[in-house]
Amino acid sequence: MKRIAVFGLFLVTMLIPSTRALGWMRLIREDAKLVGDSELIVVGRLQAGSVCYILKADGGRPGWETRVTLLITEVLKGTCKKKEVPILIHYGLTPIVGGHVNIEGKLEMDVRSRNKSYPKSKIEVYDTGSSLHGGPSLVADARDDNLWFLRKSSGHGVEGAVAEVFGIAEPEELAPSVLKPYYQALLAADPEKALKELLGRTDRVGKLAECYLDLQEVRRIQKLADPAERAAKLRPFHNKADGWWRLEEPERRQRKLLYYESEVEQTKK
């Protein structure tokens, strides 16, 4: 029997009880809004051995949640004098240690495939709340320094009490540390000016900066009074953003936003 490989290397098996199935459509959040929404943005890593699954979330929040310890390397926004803080990973995002997890029948995932030498203490974080299952881990290894966009929330949606500690609830709230210059530019007093300085880069940071600037230009075009002029100027941006689904996050999310905001049909009255 032939095996079907999802995303080449991932074989994900998910067992979800019928009483409460995961799966909702994630909204598109612009990175500038992500930065604004976050109370605390840090570069940090998860402490090995700190992953603890709580089968029933506190405060009436839905599903389960995960308590972990975050070791902070650098603070980019907000204030935190501690170098070691407890945080929550809310329902819909699931850390997996060593490539396999079984949360007492509520969720089972195995991403090891045939890799018998899979690192036993490696921590990956998967989006298990999205209706589009099967994507890769949000970061290669959460034990390494990554970007954490933290806030106190009730998790995805509005059910239950706001948690007393910082946490993440959406996939964009955890990103690779190589993208730090991009997010630092978004935190600048003049983000557009700061991002223009990144345009010469050929890496992911440069591409994200370009996408942000394209989006600002599209919004200026949308204010033009003449529908024909708007359509003519929007079309190149729309064509440029086509193929957004082939990109990795967060480029995929930001290009998708550009694609929809530059649709010529939006100019029709």
Write a structural description.
With 269 residues, the chain is an alpha+beta fold. The chain has six helices and eleven strands. It has helices at residues 31-37, 180-186, 191-196, 204-221, 227-241, 251-261, and strands at 40-46, 52-54, 65-77, 84-89, 93-97, 100-102, 108-110, 123-127, 146-150, 167-168, 174-176. Strands 1, 2, 3, 4, 9, 10 and 11 form a seven-stranded mixed sheet that branches. A hairpin with a 5-residue loop joins strand 6 (100-102) and strand 7 (108-110). Helix 4 (204-221) runs parallel beside helix 6 (251-261). The longest helix is centred in the C-terminal third of the chain and has 18 residues, at 204-221. Residues 1-21 have low confidence and may be disordered.
Task: Summarize this entry quickly.
The chain has 269 residues and is an alpha+beta fold.
Residue-averaged pLDDT, rounded? 87
Q: What count of helical segments does DSSP give? A: 6
Determine the fraction of residues in helical runs and give it as a percent range. 10-25%
Determine the strand fraction and express it as a percent band: 15-25%
* Cα shape: globular
